[in-house]
Known about the structure:
The protein is mainly beta. It has a single domain (about 5-115), classed as YopX-like domains (SH3 type barrels), CATH 2.30.30. About 0% of the residues lie in helices and about 50% in strands. The chain is built from no helices and 10 strands. It has strands at about 5-10, 15-25, 30-35, 35-40, 45-50, 60, 65, 70-75, 80-85, 100-105. Strands 4-3-2-1-5-6 form a 6-stranded antiparallel sheet, with no helix packed on it. The protein has a 4-stranded antiparallel sheet with strand order 9-8-7-10, with no helix packed on it. The protein starts with 6 loop residues before the first strand and ends in a 14-residue tail after the last strand. About 20% of the residues are buried.
Amino acid sequence: MKREILFRGKKIVNGEWVEGNLFHHSEQRFIAGNNRNTEVIPETVGQYTGLTDRNGVKIFEGDIVKRKGTFYEVKYSTELTSFLAFSSNGFFNPVVFQNCEVIGNVHDNPELLKGEENG
Length: 119
């Protein structure tokens, strides 16, 4: 199975999200796409998991997804060499990506991780 390798990050200039290939130059991070290289805020760079949510939205590292009223942050685990979904109580659920919905990300919507919906 072949997986698309893709990254996203927020532009330093205006904070808009861009997607493409990632490359480093010194301490700077750039996303290459649409025939141009765009410098991005290093802390906002996240890799595409290769998965989409129930609406067909690509799921990236740093996204916040919701499943059955619980919010999860998508993180990469170097120990398990895979993307995992961690809930606000610190536990991860490996099946969260099934029938989940991307509702934001940790850079634009960190408040979503402070609580969970009822129901």
